[in-house]
Amino acid sequence: MEFGVNFFPVVDPERKSAADYYEESLRLVDLAEELGYEHVQIVEHYGSPYGGYSPDPVAFLAAAAARTERIRLATGAVIAAFTHPVKLAASLAMLDNLSRGRLDVGFGRAFLPDEFEAFGVSIEESRDRFDDGVAACLELWTGEQTVFEGAVHRFGPFTGYPRPYQRPHPPVFVASATSPDSCAAAGRAGHNLQVVPSVTSREGLRDMIEGYRRARAEAGHPGGGRVQVKYTCYLSEDRELALSDARAQEENYVARMADAVASWAHTRSSQYPGYEKFVEKARAYDFDKALADGKVLAGTPGDVVEQVARVAGEYGGDLCVSLQFNPGHLPYERAARAMGLFAREVAPSFTGMPRTRREPVPATA
């Protein structure tokens, strides 16, 4: 098992400024490097307290790259639908060079109707734009005088610059919220996978991961691929403090998510079957049930060791678990303390931290 750190800002601007959030998060990046975590990653969202402090993962990760030497930098995920692939491929390749080959690229489809509306993009083009974005980036990273003919994007001949530092290109991950079809497609394509337990059942998540691995094997790709599972983590020697923090911050997260997904109450899309249930799920949220169902990690180090062992038993011991320690408005000091406790008292039960760096293959090789 590998462990990394993720950032999903669900922050009320009246309670914490953007500048303070970035400063605190980058201090946690420094700590993650020191403690031997495998990666740091950040999301892409717009226009609300639900992730809106992170409109540009590349900018945040460039700042992280300048402060670190070893830790990998992951987008979790960039939204291909909202950026032309020529620009997206170039900015990601630039980050890969700035970090000397430490970039992992997670691509996502987006799922909030309000974001599609803000960009003037039809939600019914979601899948086509995602497929075009991933395919075009791969061609621009590896080809010469690329002529691209996609469902939405057409361009060329055009050669992408700069070339990525890693050859033939950075590792590619596909982010999926609830779709087994998306997971299977990622497996068939030979990509890696990012999933989030908080928005699906344990059985549903198991089916998604198993479907990914099965499709990857049937397509003949070597190895099992990398599966990254994201959790919030609240950790303290004081169980009551950890659970109190978890309850408050998870309820804040769900309240902000409920606002962000509210437009699904009157939106229907063939691209997102069943997503109208997000509104109902948010309203029915119960923290105690979420904790019992393994959707959040919280408690003492001993408690969290048991919870991670359960994750490994259900989804496989070869996972990369990505942990958010500073959700919502948790004070920096408690997030930093939890990150250290996890590295010292939880992770060694599953893997030897610090881990050996995966050396990238440079473009000059």
From TrEMBL:
Stored Pfam families: Bac_luciferase (PF00296)
Top-level lineage group: Bacteria
InterPro entries: Bact_Lucif_Oxidored, Luciferase-like_dom, Luciferase-like_sf
Family statement drawn from the similarity comment of this UniProt entry: Belongs to the bacterial luciferase oxidoreductase family.
Entry keyword annotation includes Metal-binding: no
Name under which the protein is recorded: LLM class flavin-dependent oxidoreductase
Occurrences of domain Luciferase-like (ranges): 1-311
Organism, as annotated: Streptomyces durbertensis
Keywords: Flavoprotein, Monooxygenase, Oxidoreductase
Keyword Methyltransferase carried by entry: no
